[in-house]
Design goal:
Helices cover 3% and strands 64% of the residues. With 246 residues, it is mainly beta. It starts with a strand and ends in a 5-residue tail after the last strand. It has a 19-stranded antiparallel sheet that branches. The chain has 3 domains: 71 residues, Histone H3 K4-specific methyltransferase SET7/9 N-terminal domain, CATH 2.20.110; 66 residues, no CATH class; 73 residues, no CATH class. The protein is rod-shaped and about 85 Å long. The chain has 1 helix and 19 strands.
């Protein structure tokens, strides 16, 4: 991209320290090498809505840096590779208040990471309650219980920006799902604790719903059964106390 350059030149090529103002108003101030933005530098968009400060290689963000989007309040601190988030970093969303601290690959959450979802009350009051199934399907949190300033947390594995593999999702009220995930949904084997009912389900899941064999524990009693896409089909055992007799 062409622009107006002021700074060091070697054989007519940008090399050293300088300032480059692009034709569209974007601005870069920092190190150059062989004509490229290379080394430490600060990039500011035309209206100042986006600012990046950090390492560059061949005119791409590469290395450690920090980026701010002033209009949305989003911010990222961490590693880059070839102009995208890659490696370890912290991404905070200004509108939702969510924060991800973990690994990235090719600009997406990928690897091990912890995501905190801010819980915001609904207009007119209420907690913004939503069932676990719908929350996980959307990949966001609107937790039962808790008020403004509360958070729900996912801590575990990610793939291509979604919860995938082993992980634990904990609601602001303390309820949780812990187990395996597939494309952002509970899938495989896992446990769900529902504090509102005091129920613990431990068993199989399919695409975010209880499916297959499982067991429910409530009020000190445990019973096994079979589920089909979230609906219990039948009980396969009688209730058994989880407490050992003296």
């Amino acid at each position: 991209m062409r622009g107006v350059f002021s700074g060091d030149l070697v054989d007519g090529i940008r090399h050293g320290a300088g300032v480059l103002v692009f034709a569209n108003g974007d601005r870069y101030e920092g190190a150059f090498a062989h004509g490229f933005r290379d080394g430490h530098g600060v990039f500011t968009s035309e209206r100042g809505n986006r600012v990046f400060e950090g390492q560059w290689r061949r005119s791409e963000k590469h290395g450690v840096g920090r980026e701010r989007w002033l209009a949305s309040g989003d911010r990222y601190d961490g590693e880059y590779e070839r102009d995208v988030f890659h490696g370890r970093g912290v991404l905070t969303r200004g509108v939702s208040g969510s924060t991800y601290d973990g690994e990235f690959q090719d600009g997406k959450k990928h690897g091990r990471g912890r995501m905190e979802f801010a819980v915001k009350p609904r207009a007119g009051g209420g907690s913004g309650k939503a069932d676990l199934k719908s929350v996980l399907a959307m990949g966001i949190s609107s937790s039962a219980g808790g008020g403004a300033g509360s958070v729900s947390v996912y801590d575990g594995s990610w793939k291509d920006g979604r919860m995938h593999g082993e992980g634990k999702y904990t609601r602001a009220d303390g309820g949780f799902y812990e187990g395996t995930w597939l494309d952002g949904l509970c899938h495989g084997v896992g446990k769900e604790m529902v504090l509102a009912t005091g129920e613990l389900y431990d068993g199989q899941w399919l695409k975010g719903q209880r499916h297959g064999e499982g067991a429910v524990t409530r009020n000190g009693k445990r019973r096994r059964g079979v589920w089909d896409m979230g609906q219990r089909v039948k009980w396969t055992t009688a209730e058994v106390s989880v407490f050992k007799k003296a």
